[in-house]
Structure formats: structure tokens, C-alpha cells
Amino acid sequence: MARKPKRRKSFLSKKKYLELILEFLDSRPLGAFSSKTITRRLGFRDKPSKQIIKELLIQLSNQGMVRQLRNGSYTSARELELQTGVVDFVNPRFCYVIIPGMEDDVWVKAADMNGAMDGDQVKIAIQRTQRHGKRPEGSVEEIVERGRQEFVGKIELSDRWAFVVPDHRKMYQDIFIPPGKSMKALNRDKVVVRITEWPKGRNQNPTGEVIRILGPAGENEAEIHSIMAEFELPFEFPERVLAASKKIEDTISKQEISNRRDFRDVTTFTVDPEDAKDFDDALSIKSLDNGHFEVGIHIADVTHYLKPETPLDREAFDRGTSVYLVDRTIPMLPERLSNELCSLRPNEDKLTFSAVFEVDGNARVRNQWFGRTVIYSDRRFTYEEAQQRIESVEGDFARELTILNELALKLRVNRFRRGAINFETTEVKFQLDDKGKPLAVVPKVRKDAHKMIEEFMLLANRKVAEFVYHRKKGKNKDTFVYRIHDYPDPEKLTAFSVFARKFGHDLNIEEQAIAKSLNNLIDDIEGKPEQDVLQQLAIRTMAKAKYTTEAKGHFGLAFDHYSHFTSPIRRYPDVLVHRLLAHYLSNGNSPEKDEFEEMCVHSSEREKRAAEAERASVKFKQVEYMQGMEDREFEGIVSGVTEWGIYVELVETKCEGMVRLSDLKDDYYEFDEENYRVVGQRNKKIITLGDLVNVVVKKTDIDRRTIDLQMV
Question: The dihedral of CA 257, 258, 259, 261: what is its sign?
Fold first, then answer.
């Protein structure tokens, strides 16, 4: 039993009361206590003492000697060691604050969030006691920086007021729009709203003003524009950037050609998707007298046109990457560059930066050369056209394509022999009508033509990285932009191996054996019911690839060094790689790493944003496609299990929806996180990843981009 505080006498001087109060609070700097609790903890029971302590606390608070919190409780005024982190607003009741370098996220209840929103950078005080599980608990003491100022949502109007209901899943408060601040938006229009006043109390709403009307909710343009605004993607290029692109000279001077290696007489072609408009890579092939082949990987020389610190360059850096939504591309570069000057269109002289390899019949590289070139593409192939020539060995350039494909197959075999992991995930694309409405969901099929281009791009990226890394001997290497992929987290691998064993698959997770073991697993599960779930879980155990100046390897590809050299029209890191490679080929000295590391971090963040926006656009089209299919039964595979529901991917449409645990009426189901399953408390029924289930579509919600399912 806890010891009761010693009952104190009430005839103390005020000075002694002050000393006792300060001593008590200073000994508990991370605790907050009401006047009543402080009185009791100090051992006083009489009314005079209660009144004196109450008055003294107010006095001490006014003097700044103690702090009074929003809920009226008091805490020490000693400078706390506050931690800085980012808010992850899980649900309306609480959030987690993610602190770099801290193993566990900090749990903060809504009442202690001090007006913080999802994505805000905050300073928090961490409490010593934990009342809600194993995680540390805390309270937000200061908002350092707001994560975002603008939100997308649907406006709801009345005669006297307006509110915007945010689309953002982690924004749980509607935004109040004062009279005259709605830009004459119509009821249920999708709008962009900027916050003008943040809430100061728990039950207050933020106040904002409409700054852009996107259109009626549910229409394709309004919804896609909503996604663009939600992820802060640009709607258009600034006028100064477009003006700068139009001023670029489109003729290639004889002087420029004379400074480059000329490949215009060598057989060269591009292979791209049918709907591609920018062609940023081409292949050339020439037979050599010694029986070897000279293969050229020619990449659009974007850096010839994109000069550092110009409006064009600053805009490209800010965008970081092109973004591919379901029905449109948001390009990194203006069309004048991406589709015209830089695009390797057929039957035109084009400036390129090339990696040229002499390879033998076994696809071993015997010699290599890197430098600026000029090419003339003889043919623009679609993947389907190239595949037809590879399979039939008939048609124009069939011999060249067949040779390149045979070399690529050998490169691929060698790559997997070295330990590359063979993840082949199924992607889907939508067939849309002229208004953007989805008519069908079609799986993307990867054939030899796709893999051929992939292998030669991987070869160029790897060899460029190795060339720069080995250029300087010793530990102090030249600054460069690498693409790295760390070894998987051991704990995640262990958990995955335990789960795979339940399907009868043993996984060797030792560092030297994991790649081979994963490939064996992928081969073993092909065509089996557990294929999708185990492959998805295997991917989730992997670290995320990123850009950095650190010369680390790429685990998934089994390359000691790897870069991105082959897509400068759509990725800014490739632009940096071209600039650095050209600098070193001219015997330039290594620049400082810090500036390039900052650009790598920015590029990785932009890449993440693009991926999230692309997923959101796919999810929107999935929900739109499933509208009108309510009450129709589908077969599905359990693709995820959480404490609030079961995610199911429909076999027929590849669309994913969720069965809420609260909708399972036959029993009360508990979430078993360790085993990726839920278990009925009475009937002991188990629903786990990979299970085949029958469901009906209960509800679709375009605004939230969700599909609610019901178990049959």
C-alpha cells in the first residue's frame, strides 16, 4: 500500500507554504497537479490551508514561479528538457509524436495537444508515468512549425455560415469560413482553404478562407485537382519559367556537335510505353570485329539546357520529380524541354549523355566510356512493337532487338546470381473515357521488352556510380548522388520469417543468405494462394530506397554502388548525377558534400510525396469504379489486418476496401498484431492475411476515397 502523506499542522507561515509548494512541484517537473491534489499531497486537510495554497498558487503563477496549464493544473516552472518531433494524428482522441532517434513514439491525448495538427513540428514534455500502455506519454508545449497551411475539402453553406469538411484523413475538425471569405463557392464544391486562425482550445475550429474553387465534388477534374492540392502539387508552371523555356535555342550548332562523340551513323532506337510523350533514353548497338558488341545507353542531355541557378533549374529542383496521376502527368520540366528539346524523338539530331559499353557474348563488360554525345534515333518503338519483333524475329531492327534482349537476359541472370531480389508485383492501369471515368481495370504485363530496357538502364546506373566511386583512391571519395537501399530491419525479417513458416516456408535470415532465401521463397509461392500476401509482406520488410551522398550499396539490386543516371527529364537527382559526372570527366575537384546531401534529402521527400499522390489518384479511380456495385458479391484476399478493420483486395477488380471489425456481428474480434490476424473471442474464428473471403460492397465514399465492405 502507498504511504499516506503525513498530516501537517495548519499554523505555518506563508513563507513555509511557499517553500513546500515549490519543493513539491520542482521534485516532479514533468507532472501537473490541481490545487486540491497539491494540498492533499502536502498532507493538509483543513480548509484554511486549502485556501492559502490555492491563493499562493495563483500568486506564484502570476510571478512566473510556477506554470498554470490550460486545464487549470500547475507544474514546475523549471526549464523542461523538451523533445522536438512531428505529430501523427491517429484519431480524434489522441496522436503520436515521432521524435528522431527515439525508439518509441510518444502518446499524447487530444486534450494535451495544444492546438497541434497532423504533420506539425512540436516541442513536447514527456511524462515519467505511463497510463496508456507501454509507450511514453507527453503533452505538446509549443508548436514550432505548422505542417501545412492549406487544406482541401467540401464546402457546406448555410444562410449565415460556411464550413469546409477537409478531405485530409487526419484532419478531424471542420474549418469555419467567415462571411465573405468563400469566393462565392457553391454548396458541396471542392475548394482549397487557407487557415487564417488556428484553434486555441480543444473544442474550437480553425478559421480559414477559400483561395481556390476546384469544382463540384465527385467530378473528375475537381477530385484530381483536390489530390493535387492535398499534396501541394503545382497546377501550372510560373510564367517566368515558361518564358525562360521558350527562349532556349532549338538548333544544335556545328561547334556543339564537334565537342561530342558522334553516334548518328550507329543504329539507334527508343522503346517506350505507347502513350509516352517524352523519350529520355535510347539504345544503340554495333557489332565489333572481335565478335563483341558495342552497346550505347544514350540519355537526354538535360543539363545542356538546364543551367544551375536559373528559374528553370530552381523550379525543377523544387518539383523534384514528375508525378504520374491516373489521368495526367505533372512534369518536372516544361513541355518545351520534356517533350521537344530533350525528348529523343525519331529522325532528329539530339544531344545526349551516354554510357557506352563493349560487351562480349556473355554480357560481360570489357570496356566502358562515358561522355556527351549526339545521336539520331532511327525508330520509336512501343513496348508491344519491340516485343513482337523479339518473339517473331521479324520486322525492322528485329536482329538488333533480339541481340539486345539476349544480352539483357544474361545480365539479368548474372544480377540474380549476385543476390538481387526478384520482386515482381502486379500493377494495374485504368481504361478511362473522354471524361476520365474508369471503364475497366487492366493489369500491366511486363514482358521481355520491358525487362530488356530495365537491364540496360540498371547497367548504366551501376557503372556510372562505380566509375565515380573508384575514381579517387582512399577513404575520402568524390561527392556524388547515390541511390541506396539498406539491409532490411532484423526485427521485421524475424517477424516475417515466423509468419512465412506458418505457410510451410523456411527463411534463412542471416545477412549473407537472406537474398537467396527470399528468391527461393518467391519461386516457391508462385501460383499459390499465399503468393500475394507473402510477397507484399516481404516488400514491407524492406528498407526504403533513398538518395544520399553516402557511398552505400543497394540491397535489393545487389549492387555495391548505384545511382540514377537514366531519367533526367523526370527526376532531379539524375540531373545532379549528370552535372557531377561531367565535372569529374573534366578532371574537376570534388565539391562539398553538405549542399548535395541537402538536395538528396529534398529529392527523397519529393519522391515520397509523388508516390503518395499517385496512390491517392489510383484509390480515387478504384472508388469511382466501384460506385454502383453496392450489394454485389466479390471474392477477395485479405491484404491487411489492423485494430480497426480487415483490408480486402477484390480478385476481379484489384480494388481494395475494408471490413470494419465493428461490422462483424457474429462475435467480438480482437486484433493479434504479432500474427497479422483477428480472432473471435467466443467462436475462435481466425481471419488472417492471405485468407480468401467473400464480401459485398457496403458503401463507397469519393471524398474519403474509401470502400466499405461487408463479409458475406
Answer: positive
Can you give the pLDDT at residue 2? 45
pTM of the shown model: 0.84
Closest alpha carbon to 551 in 608, 455, 476: 476
The string of pLDDT tens digits covering residues 507-555 is 888 877 888 888 888 888 887 777 777 888 888 888 899 999 999 999 9
Residue 315 has pLDDT above 90, yes or no: yes
- Binned at pLDDT 50, 70 and 90, residue 68 comes out as confident
In terms of DSSP bridges, do strands 281-287 and 328-330 run parallel, antiparallel, or are they unpaired?
unpaired
Task: Summarize the chain as % helix, strand, coil (round to 5).
Answer: 30, 30, 40
pLDDT of residue 688 exceeding 70: yes
The H-or-E segment that residue 440 falls in is strand 438-443
C-alpha–C-alpha distance, residues 284 and 376, integer Å? 10
* HEC letters along 451-517: HHHHHHHHHHHHHHHHHHHHHCCCCCCCCCCEEEECCCCHHHHHHHHHHHHCCCCCCCCCCCCHHHH
Average pLDDT, the chain: 90
SS3 annotation, 231-298: CCCCCCCCHHHHHHHHCCCCCCCHHHHHCCEECCCCCEEEEECCCCCCCCEEEEEEECCCCCEEEEEE
Q: Count CB atoms within 10 A of the CB of residue 245.
A: 22
Q: Which residues contact residue 218 at a Cβ distance below 8 angstroms, ignoring those fewer than 6 apart? A: 702
C-alpha to C-alpha distances, 610 to 151, 322, 571, 614, nearest whole angstrom = 18, 8, 11, 6
Most confident listed range (141-145, 335-339, 664-668): 335-339
Q: Is 108 helix (H, G, I), strand (E, B) or coil?
A: strand
The domains found in the chain, sorted by start residue, are 14-76 (1.10.10.10), 83-145 (2.40.50.140), 150-217 (2.40.50.700), 239-474 (no CATH), 627-711 (2.40.50.140)
Closest CA to 91 of 70, 115, 72, 108: 108
Q: Quick check: 221 pLDDT over 90?
A: yes
Consecutive H or E run containing 594: helix 593-626
